[in-house]
Amino acid sequence: MTSTIMIHNLDVPQFEELIKSTVKEQIDELKQSLNKDNQDELLTREETYKLLKIDSSTLWAWTKMGKLKVYGIANRRYYKRNEVLDCLILVKQKTT
């Protein structure tokens, strides 16, 4: 199925804004779909500390302090990817 869009009486800034808003909407939809797909993905301890680029002892300490939630099945430990990423905080915001 092909779609045709005809644009009349738009100046360049209006056209640029139309393109920007359309691309932003598409990117937001893609982000949402990716987040839904990975939302409950379980990571092993090794995958988690590699994702965060930290040492295994740091992961253990953060878990013990309650910074990260750990889930267990028998003697195995797992972390939810979305919860690990949600724990990250913005340290310094760039001002423009």
Supply the key terms.
single chain, 96 residues, mainly alpha, 4 helices
Head-to-tail CA distance between termini: 43 Å
Class from secondary-structure proportions: mainly alpha
Using DSSP, what is the number of strands?
3
Shape: elongated
Give average pLDDT, whole number. 84
Give a description of the structure.
The protein is mainly alpha-helical. It has a domain at 42-86. The chain is built from four helices and three strands; from the N terminus they run αβααββα. A hairpin with a 2-residue loop joins strand 2 (71-73) and strand 3 (76-80). The model has no long low-confidence stretch (mean pLDDT 84).
What is the strand and helix layout of this fold?
Layout: H1 12-38, E1 42-44, H2 45-52, H3 56-65, E2 71-73, E3 76-80, H4 81-86
Antiparallel strand pairs: 1-3, 2-3
What's a concise summary of this model?
The protein has helices at about 10-40, 45-50, 55-65, 80-85; strands at about 40-45, 70-75, 75-80. The protein is mainly alpha-helical. A hairpin with a 2-residue loop joins β2 (about 70-75) and β3.
